[in-house]
Design a protein that fits this description.
- InterPro entries: NadR/Ttd14_AAA_dom (IPR038727), P-loop_NTPase (IPR027417).
- This is Putative ATPase.
- It holds the Pfam family AAA_28.
- The protein is α/β, with parallel strands linked by helices and 192 residues long.
- It has one domain: Rossmann fold (3-Layer(aba) Sandwich), CATH 3.40.50.
- 50% of the residues lie in helices and 11% in strands.
- Strand 4, helix 7 and strand 5 form a beta-alpha-beta unit.
- The two termini are 16 Å apart.
């Protein structure tokens, strides 16, 4: 079993709150690359922001996801990632006008999607991927999350297609309190 566990799904669906609950329980966690990139870019007056230069932002997200994986390799036990490499690759492919991880051959024929999938496969994670569904009742925009719920749901749909295409099993998390969600994740992993 690969010890790198991905929490993905809908933006604003409670991933970061769940990551914090898992951290409180003593698990290693990796915070979302996007929020870290935005903070760093703002601090240095950079332009790799999703609302300024989306391609540069996503290239940074891919690089950060790879660096996060390398850093997490030194250690033992499960490591929970708030988003990960596949999320960044799917977004980058979408930004480039491609359908990431389409049926084998279809994406490669357009020149790119096959490359995204090959990079994702070269850096595997646990087959179980935990998905937070769209949850309008808790979705909020802020200074870092400027997109609306419709864009978040479209991203969710792209990710929900990409992960199974890479051989992952999606576990859509129930809309329940965070501690119950954490119990659910750990039970599926046999770590609870």
């Amino acid at each position: 079993m690969n010890r790198f566990v991905i929490l993905s799904g809908c933006s604003g669906g409670g991933k970061s709150t769940l990551i914090e609950a898992l951290r409180r329980r003593g698990h290693r966690v990796v915070e979302e690359p996007g929020r870290r990139i935005i903070a760093a870019e703002r601090a240095r007056g950079g332009r790799a922001l999703p609302w300024v230069d989306l391609a540069a932002f996503l290239d940074r997200a891919i690089a950060m996801a790879l660096a996060d994986r390398a850093a997490a390799a030194a250690g033992t036990g499960l490591v929970f990632f708030d988003r990960g490499l596949v999320d960044a690759l799917v977004a980058r492919a979408h930004c480039a006008g491609e359908t990431a991880f389409a049926a084998e051959g279809a994406g490669a024929a357009r020149g790119g999607s096959g490359e995204w999938a090959a990079l994702a496969r070269a850096h595997p994670s646990n087959r179980a991927v935990f998905f937070v569904p769209p949850w309008p009742g808790i979705f909020r925009t802020d200074g870092d999350r400027r997109h609306g719920l419709a864009e978040a749901v479209a991203e969710y749909d792209r990710l929900a297609a990409a992960y199974p295409a890479l051989g992952h099993t999606l576990h859509v998390l129930p809309k329940v309190p965070v501690e119950t969600r954490a119990d659910h994740v750990l039970a599926i992993l046999g770590a609870g």
